[in-house]
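Lab channel / #folding
Pinned by the channel admin:
"Please post every new chain as: sequence first, then the structure tokens as a reply. Keep commentary short and put observations after the output so the thread stays searchable."

First post following the new format, from NK:
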Amino acid sequence: MSASTTPAERVGARAVLRRPYVPLVLVASQVGRLPLAAAPIALLLFARESLSLVVAGALVAVFTAGMAIGAPVLARAVDRWRQPPVLYGSAALSTVGYLIAALAPGRPLVIGLGAALAGLGTPPLEACLRALWPALVPPSTVHAAYALDIALQEVIFVAGPLVTLGAVALGGPAAGLYTAALLQLVGVIAFVRAPAVRQWRGTTVKRHWLGPLRSRRLAVMVAGVAFAGAAVGSIPVVLTGYAEAAGNRSLTGWLLAAQAGGALIGGLLYTRATPGTPRRLPLLATAFAIGYLPLLIAPGTGAMTVLLILSGVMLPPLLTAVFLNADRLAPPGTAVEAFAWIMTAFSVGSALGAAAAGPLTDAGIRTGFALAPIAALLAIGAMLATVRTVRT
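Reply from TO:
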């Protein structure tokens, strides 16, 4: 798509939301994806009632690993067939997993089995929605739809933990797991109501075992997303250390909410941008990396809040450009799986970033904050390698 975009294409979020069924699929997808942020906390609180923190953390890791493995597998099934059967089937499997876990307090192996099934069956709503945008909005507004979707995703990571805490407060430790299962089912059922979801069909092509990753440029970009995920994933751990050093651990939640608010602002603003060419990728990755550098100052709480808002602004624009280029680079018939690999890469990178940030933060708060810009620098390198061979 040309960089010389006409003013008519600068449509923004409002024009996207006016399209038929867009509010339905956006809201349904948001509800169905709330367990992405709600379930880990629900599982942690439930397991912690009868098990050690180490075991509870391991069970959350099992759930996360299940999601990372299941997402591309389920997305490949969507590419090969249709969205509704895969969404219904995966939601049913995940619900069974939540129920197994919730009905086995104090039994780590059974809870682990339930957590694994809940993660493996997590419906690929995010990938499905992004594959639908070309059918839901005009070509000139697809980039704005991606940006709006990614911006609104930040609401999930603010609302999800609050929903879990409310459910546990009202119904006890298992209520968080029941609520996650219910939200997932409601979201999937509402999402499938949209005609575009039922009408969408995967492309019939000869498939390679590597799927979209047989495109080297796409594989390199996915690696870049993993580095960006590591930068983002390191921050909650470092902020926990920062809050403890400030004498108030509860600051962590507020500071993370500030960063999520910055991402929401950045995503909404980016809906007004032109789609640009693939060469925008390294520029956006550079801006993303620069946003993390001031955190090395580790100032007082007020200034840190402002810096965290700024650090969040460039994540949605970067991911929007990534998804647009994934659509360009993915071989025919593999778009949904390509989107799933991007999300898996981000999740795995985030988990690795969190793991690496722990010992670094023990060495010093500023040392912990250094991980994010270093990881982001590696993301810049991957994005540069991606566009060097693109002639779009």
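NK: The chain has two domains: 13-202, 208-392.
TO: also worth noting, Residues 1-10 have pLDDT under 50 and may be disordered.
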